[in-house]
Design goal:
CATH superfamily of the largest domain in chain A: Metallo-dependent phosphatases
Number of domains of chain A: 3
Mean pLDDT of chain A: 89
Helix content of chain A: 25-40%
Largest sheet of chain A: 6 strands, mixed
Largest interface: A-B, 23 and 23 residues
Shape of chain A: elongated
Oligomer: homodimer
Domain Nuclease SbcCD subunit D C-terminal (chains A, B): 275-366
Subunit structure (chains A, B): Heterodimer of SbcC and SbcD.
Keywords (chains A, B): DNA recombination, DNA replication, Endonuclease, Exonuclease, Hydrolase, Nuclease
CATH class of the largest domain in chain A: Alpha Beta
Number of strands of chain A: 19
CATH architecture of the largest domain in chain A: 4-Layer Sandwich
Structural class of chain A: alpha/beta
Low-confidence stretches of chain A: 338-344
Strand order of the largest sheet of chain A: 6-5-4-1-15-16
Protein name (chains A, B): Nuclease SbcCD subunit D
Organism (chains A, B): Andreesenia angusta
Distance between the termini of chain A: 74 Å
């Protein structure tokens, strides 16, 4: 059985005032192309389908279109869980009616305790799709259990699943959360919203040891946890500059025959590249402006980190001429350079300088030339005639 | 073919700060009971499914549950159009996937030009489901056409349908708007939102003359337009006090064999009663308080119109003891009574009266007794000792 494991689509995401719906349409389009050529038996989307509990009309449209293609055109089986960004109730619209079309949208944790039963040439595959649920809501669902944090939620829910697990069959678990192996450091991103304020988000990977594959959602970088069988697919595209070095794509899993202990399994990442990458550039303004770039690189989403000691004159206007999609500019004050030749042009002593002196510094900074004598005279006479109280 | 025609469910409606979701669950439950016992071949919901373009989670849940029951449990064919209150894009989620489950959610006016084809023992039935579209949006969809108002929209869309209409077959049209027959006065309600500001909402019934049945939505009172075949089902429950005398329910239509001109047709209203009615009570406060009421009548949603000439002392508190669900209180000044015995207690001359006189009037009004001499003396001495500037 070939499985496409993806998640954290965050459809409708806005980052730094920029809507990424067009980029999402692009990467989801590339995902659909891979589905069409590879024809996986099962597509898993492990939560955070939408970015907001009330998604935009465009986001609803894109998901609708995508699921329709998967189910109607490609006739693939699809299992979706809701993540911490999704409204379970909104996402579940139509879910019961869509089940026998092969689309399972699981948003009710109680339902996740019974498997979705699939089959291939090696026999049955049980899919346990566990949607995100907060500890508070989980306490209401399982009143007899002691649930303080996310680890307790997983202990209770996965525990109930494992009570009835037939280990002679192949079993897949889908889960949305922060699953860790003690001592192992996971790759986190700035675009992941913490699951709890103050309390611990972490869930022990130990609970998942009896599954043949665990398809995780929540972290945006593709990675394994503890074993090859417990994996985050990561998001389909970068949602923060902290992800600039991530390899984004789909985790493609081949699940073979059940052996003693667990099923044969192999996986690889099917990478997906958007036409516009997201990356950080760093250097002096001159260095950033002088970069030798391809047309495509000019179009990338850029965070420019300008290393500077002096004042900068319209850095955004200048960078915009070279980079078409700058999302953020940061100025990094370079302490080592401050010691050097340009140190006199600092804010430190500007109050002691005359307006003429300040302008002379500014002119030199912007043009890299000294203010000529004749220009300086003109300026001086201009300044004399002005009401200096305005300064 | 038996058809259940309903519409204007306005799920999630809030009226006078009161959510009606529980009442909606109740009347939709009664509708489902009728479906279960009557098993109509087709259920039509003629727009304004939700009350808001972004429905609440509860509203989404109730519609989802209802449609799941209709389609999964009762296996009925269902055709829905979006109305002026619905977001076409949000309502259409899953629509393509749900079509072969027998659920058609039509929100795209272009699709409405091709029929949904059904069949019964007498042959084919073509259903043209025309969603609401504003004249502005219609101009973008049909750029070659001159569209100024809703009548133009209907002329163009219904015109395109009629171009290809096979009049030897039976044809049903579903439409959401203000369809009128010139000279005929329709029953309107306060809960219907005007379709245009300033311009005309009206659409000529003439366009629909070739259909065997026209299932209309928008007006909340069940009524026919021009002929028996063009009908508003009205809403399932009252959404304003202007509807207090409406008979609410489902229009149940029997569509028989095609004859020369049109098909055999008969219809009746299957009434639905919520456990709490909505009605206006009117009379003096004493009359309203003295009404002989059943337990159920005490629970009704009430607008109390108190006919009064003098001041009223805590009318809401008093009425709340008798009527459990008062949504609005209006005071109706009775000009005829003002001439009578209580006329002296009016606001007109209160500035000329002393505080003691004002209190004497107030006491008489509230208690229906004269202020006793001893009490009046006490009050007078109290008032003397007070700093009257506070008044």
């Amino acid at each position: 059985m070939k499985i496409y494991h993806t998640g954290d689509w965050h459809i409708g995401k806005v980052f730094l005032h920029k809507s990424f719906i067009d980029e999402q349409r692009e990467v989801i389009g590339k995902f659909l192309e891979k589905v069409e050529s590879d024809m996986p038996d099962l597509v898993i989307i492990a939560g955070d389908i939408y970015d907001k509990s009330i998604p935009t009309v465009e986001a609803v449209g894109l998901l609708n279109e995508t699921l329709s293609k998967l189910v109607m055109e490609h006739k693939r089986k699809v299992v979706i869980i809701s993540g911490n960004h999704d409204s379970a109730d909104r996402l579940s619209f139509g879910s019961e009616m869509l089940e026998d079309k092969g689309l399972h949208i699981v948003t009710d944790v109680v339902k996740s305790i019974s498997p979705i039963e699939l089959e291939d040439e090696h026999g049955k595959v049980n899919v346990y799709a566990v949607p995100y649920i907060s500890p508070m809501k989980a306490r209401a669902v399982f009143p007899g259990e002691e649930i303080k944090d996310h680890d307790d939620v997983a202990r209770v829910v996965i525990g109930k699943i494992c009570e009835k697990l037939d280990k002679s069959e192949r079993n897949i678990c889908i889960y949305h959360g922060f699953v860790t192996n003690s001592g192992e450091r996971l790759q986190e991103s700035e675009s992941e919203r913490p699951l709890s304020i103050g309390g611990s988000d972490e869930v022990s990977a130990e609970y998942f040891k009896d599954f043949d594959y665990v398809a995780l959602g929540h972290l945006h970088g593709p990675q394994k946890v503890k074993t090859e069988r417990i994996r985050y697919s990561g998001s389909l595209m970068k949602y923060s500059f902290s992800e600039q070095n991530h390899r984004k794509g789909i985790t493609s899993v081949c699940l073979g025959e059940k052996q003693v202990g667990s099923a044969e399994m192999s996986c690889n990442i099917e990478e997906i590249y958007p036409s516009r990458d997201m990356r950080i550039i760093e250097g002096s303004l001159e260095e950033l402006l002088a970069e030798d770039l391809s047309e495509a690189e000019r179009e990338d989403y850029i965070m420019a980190r300008i290393v500077a000691d002096g004042e900068l004159y319209s850095p955004k206007d200048k960078l915009d001429k070279v980079y078409k999609n700058i999302l953020r500019i940061e100025i990094k004050r370079d302490a080592t350079r401050l010691e050097g030749e340009k140190a006199e042009f600092s804010r430190a002593n500007f109050r002691e300088k005359s307006v003429l002196e300040l302008f002379r510094d500014f002119y030199a900074e912007v043009t890299d030339m000294e203010l000529e004598g004749s220009k300086e005279e003109k300026l001086a006479s201009l300044l004399e005639n002005m009401d200096m109280e305005e300064f």
